[in-house]
Amino acid sequence: MDIRALHRDLIDLHGRPEKTYSEDGVRQLLTTILSQNVADVQTARAAENLFGTYPDYRAMENADPEELAEVISDVGLMNQKSRRIQRSLQRIREETGGEYTLSFLDAMDTEAAQEWLTAIKGVGPKTASVVLNFHFERPTFAVDTHIERLSTRFGLIEESTTAAAAHEVLNEQIPDDIKYSLHVLLIRHGREYCSAQDPDCSNPVCETYCDCAFCSPQPS
Q: Tens of pLDDT along 153-189?
């Protein structure tokens, strides 16, 4: 698979993504925790409630866990995610001596920063990669459900590849300079064309790269 050719063809179909990076790394982390296994619209509602309810991160960390879970109830696993949010805030505060900032990760190399984030229970490779790529502009490639599905259909990973292994394989395969844009483009393509159910395969990218059952139906 020529990954750069796939990248060029996705740009031809969808346009080149503009780089938009988050200004607050802590907010990016908490929003990404909310987004775990949840649709974008639910994440947006829960994030709006979360950041609108609490005046600052200290109040969020010290909130009653059941109250916090109710605030983010638009997302699944709200009780687990409320604990992950408070655990993350506590870990950040302890690391910085009282501040709620991830700026200290800037001084670490990418691997060390990834290890620090994933040491927080409930923060996996995908969440850490999103924070490092979308806030710190690091060359990490986050694998969500869209990317995992398309990577399998396009032959970038085997169907049996685990989520953790997919992060390792794809981060090694994909050139650093296109990790951000390819991530955005694959998600867009997964939403607009190569969806999990009833995908629209009548597009040049799927016609060239996809070998799924919808693009290549088996003879009856």
A: 999 999 899 888 999 999 999 999 999 999 999 999 9
pTM of the predicted model, to two decimals?
A: 0.87
Q: What confidence tens digit (pLDDT) does each residue in 76-100 have?
A: 899 999 999 999 999 999 999 999 9
Cβ–Cβ under 8 Å, residues 152 and 158: yes
What does the CA dihedral 90, 93, 99, 102 come to, rounded to 10 degrees? Answer: -90
Please give the full DSSP string across the chain, using - where no structure is assigned.
--HHHHHHHHHHHH-PPPP---S-HHHHHHHHHHHTTS-HHHHHHHHHHHHHH-SSHHHHHHS-HHHHHHHTTTSSSHHHHHHHHHHHHHHHHHHHTS----GGGGGS-HHHHHHHHHTSTT--HHHHHHHHHHTT--S-----HHHHHHHHHTTSS-TT--HHHHHHHHHHHS-GGGHHHHHHHHHHHHHHTS-SSS----SHHHHHH--STTTSPPP-
